Amino acid sequence: MLLKKLSFILLLLTLCINNALAEQRLTFGAKLLAAGWNGDNGAGGSDFESDEGGQFGLNIAYKVGRFYTGLNLQRGAYNFKDDAPDKFTPSGRVSSSNVKIQQSDLDLLVGYYFWSQVSLFADIKSVTNNWLDESYKQNFLGLGIGSSGYIPLNEKWTLFGSFGFIGRGEIRDNDDNKVGEGTSWALEAGTVYSINERHFINAGIKTRKYNFEYLDNTKQDYTINALFIGYNYSFSL
Amino acid sequence: MRDLIIKQTLGIIVVMFSFFSSVSHDLLAADSRGITIEKTVRTQGSNINRGVYRALIIGNNQYQDQQGKWQPLSTAITDAREVARLLAEQYGFTDIKLLENATRRDVLFALEDLANRSLKNDNVLIYYAGHGFLDDETNKGFWVPVDADGDDHTTFLRNSTIRDEVSSIASRVQHTLLISDSCFSGSLLRTASRGISEADYTEKYFEKVSNKKSVQIMAAGGFEYVDDDYRESGHSPFTYFLINELKTNNSPMFTVSQLSGNVERAVANNVDQVPESGVLQGAGDELGEFIFIKMDVAVEGVDPDRVKVEVNVIPGESAKKDSVIIEQKRPLTKQKVVPIPTL
Fold it and tell me: Which domains are assigned to chain A?
């Protein structure tokens, strides 16, 4: 119900802000993440750590005055030569190893700068993990909130960062069966270099932590740490 | 329930992309207006001392005051953009910085930056359009930045601070002009008439005043409130007539005394507001004059391409003797663009 309300508010805001007098800005971005995925399959399971992994993302953001909204799409894959995250189905846990997991992220967010350089935002987050060649998918969907901000160092350089969490999300398998619930938080920090008034490059670090509890009471935790570089093209409307 | 959420999410994405694609067409049209004109100015005639023309242009519309004391303005940014465009296109300003919706820190940072890059023979113009404030009890005037917080004066820019920053710039350059289009902006200045009639504007006069230091100010009003939108022109009355004077001026050289006299009369004749002009107190003015040099002067009956502005420039740190190539650059807008936050 909460998600439905938020979606409706976002829709109204997106349509209404067209008439606002404030400056409007559109930004397109691309992002490359070199990441590692490690975690614990809980009692009776094994620890796991990816050998290699990364994601590529595209995003679009629209800002009008202090309000902004954006869409971020990311996709990539992680190779596990040994133990990997276990698969959970309504009928129980299935261990996994020597597998490649494709991860797809979708963020649909809306935020507002309540202070000149600090904003609060809400993010509908979807993470889909696909165990390639094993016919198993798992999706985590939740509504998160967070805060972001930036500190200009000079004309060219700006520091930025954000923190947010999802208090409760649902985990479903590829048959859309609910298999558990979970929480998540994310922390990101980086710097932006302004090439000119339209072109910006950025780099930084990001860590995401997931804590899942499945229907059989098994707890699975994992962390994805990433270094990223990105590029943004931005202009006033 | 889950399907419904996904469908709604996809619906929102479709709406967003439709909206973005509709505005991007306008954006491309606006972008094509970038200025890439080059003109050559031959130098021969009266000996005026001329360095680089620099400008810091500030326009504040989007006030963020949570207490509601400082309401958004509608014309300050339009004013600032038009002044910047005019200076670049018609008056040979080659270093223009345009600040839109500037915070207190932005303004101070930009003034400091301007001081750092200015040279001895330069001509520096600072233009401010936004809210102003006068403390009735202490008679102190302020500029109000977009991050001003209600009645908290410490979040404003006090006149004495502005004066200090402008004095710092004036100490480095030959001519400084501060134009303030805000309420109570007259509290910044001390009236100092040069007592010159129109007939006295001879080449010798221009030569004389260009070689004396000047720190001048033009203010939209004295100790009064000033209007935001003049007859729905998209400009304040003061900047409307300022722009009009700069556009219609057809003299190669145009002093601030001439400009301010014309603007003051035009504003006072049309709205209930009396602009003022003078010198900035304690900033080293020696009764020189900031001189606008118009690059595109019309001569009746002569093809505009054949009209050349000829002004002999005394060689300075940043001027060449024989010819000066004026590169018209699009004013830079300070933008802080950071990646969208995600979880």
Answer: 30-236 (2.40.128.100)
